[in-house]
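Researcher: Going back to the complex we discussed earlier. I've cleaned up the inputs and rechecked each line, so this should be the final set. Can you rerun the prediction on the complete assembly and write out the structure?
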Amino acid sequence: MNKKTTVCGIVAVGPDDVIGQNNVMPWHSRQDFFHFKTMTTPYPCVFGKNTFDGLPRRPLPNRLNIVCSSKNKDEYQSGVFYASSINSAIAACQDFDYMFICGGCQIYDYALHHDLIDIMYVTKIYDKKLEQNIKSGQFKYTRFPIDSNEFFDSDKWVVRRMVYPQNVLPVEKTNTVSKFFKCVRVR
Ligand SMILES: NC(=O)c1ccc[n+]([C@@H]2O[C@H](COP(=O)([O-])OP(=O)(O)OC[C@H]3O[C@@H](n4cnc5c(N)ncnc54)[C@H](OP(=O)(O)O)[C@@H]3O)[C@@H](O)[C@H]2O)c1
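Model: Rerun complete. Updated structure for the full complex:
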């Protein structure tokens, strides 16, 4: 019997729904890295080509890494699956209980607008310096493709705050504050 794979999305959204700048994240949060690693290991992680190319260390260890590009041919190379579409990325995960859509903007856009995501893990990032930079209008940012308030304000999603036990999260070296939420799609 084929059991359905639960499709999870995972994203960190900053002020004004910013998620990236110059192909990387415009903050450094040890806590969010810890959260990402904890949630996604040992499950497959799907990336758009831009996001994968921007990873400082790739492929991510202990997880099947799947990279989407229209130029790909649905093949494995050195343990990475190069998918020609998001649907073929999802099909490659059929033997797993969970898989993670890890962005970036184009991949979230497709997955959310095609209603593919069962659970969305949203980290809210609070960072005063970034907030000022965004307000200054001097820099170009990548934004989450939908208003992230939709997870919190609509009856499409049931949202729970996730809180780690004391001393589990690494200490932040920056002034970035992270809050973690689990948003389950109402079907
Ligand atoms: N804050 C967060 O949690 C988070 C997470 C991930 C990424 N990000 C940020 O997001 C930014 C990157 O986002 P992005 O939108 O520029 O790029 P992206 O979504 O990572 O990658 C876009 C590329 O993926 C391929 N693609 C897109 N849709 C596809 C589809 N339906 N089927 C097959 N291939 C598809 C295309 O490659 P081809 O053109 O080769 O066809 C496209 O150019 C970076 O700044 C990154 O740091 C943030």
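Model: Worth noting: Helices lie at 30-40, 49-54, 86-91, 105-113, 128-136, 149-153.
Researcher: Good, that matches what I expected from the previous run.
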